[in-house]
Design goal:
about 170 residues, alpha+beta, two-stranded antiparallel ribbon, about 20% strand
């Protein structure tokens, strides 16, 4: 008789590589071991709106992002800013899908003119992934960035000019 049959197997805490680009490979291990999103004593569910807010704030932190959202979302956001009792939406321009252990994010932005868009998208991707994985323990499978427009710095100055006719 072998003495290994009654010996309990040791659980490993090594991270499982998920293969997703920009991921450190530790997120799946965190989701399964450290954060206990699904455990023997219960389940933690994280709402889509929570992940969307985290992604929205992380996107706005990046230099070169002028605004978040497509044209319609930005117009609604400007109307919301003017109305008393309303606040700017942190989820504007952010769409998420959240599962039990994973999340996918779509981000729509307006970039500042002169910024390298591919580097801006990479920076947004890194920041969003880091923020979501750190705060929720969810593995971020993808962050898709759509650039809807470019903002020129002189666009704001044209509003402040004196009228040509008095």
């Amino acid at each position: 008789m072998s003495d290994t049959t009654n010996r309990p197997q040791a659980a490993t805490a090594e991270p499982v590589s998920t293969g997703s680009p920009g991921s450190s490979g530790k997120s799946l291990a965190l989701a399964k071991n450290d954060s206990s999103l699904v455990g023997e004593r219960g389940k933690t569910a994280i709402s889509d709106i929570v992940v969307a807010k985290i992604a929205g704030i992380a996107t706005r932190e990046i230099d070169g992002v002028y605004d978040v959202g497509g044209a319609t979302e930005r117009v609604v956001g400007k109307v919301r800013d003017v109305l008393p009792g309303t606040a700017t939406s942190t989820t504007q321009g952010i769409n998420v899908e959240v599962g039990e252990l994973q999340a996918a994010v779509d981000v729509s932005i307006v970039a500042d003119y002169g910024v390298a868009i591919h580097q801006l998208a990479a920076a947004i991707r890194r920041n969003v992934i880091a923020a979501i994985e750190q705060m929720t323990g969810l593995e971020v499978t993808e962050v898709n960035v759509t650039v809807h427009d470019i903002h020129f710095g002189d666009d704001d100055e044209s509003v402040d000019e004196e009228p040509r006719v008095q």
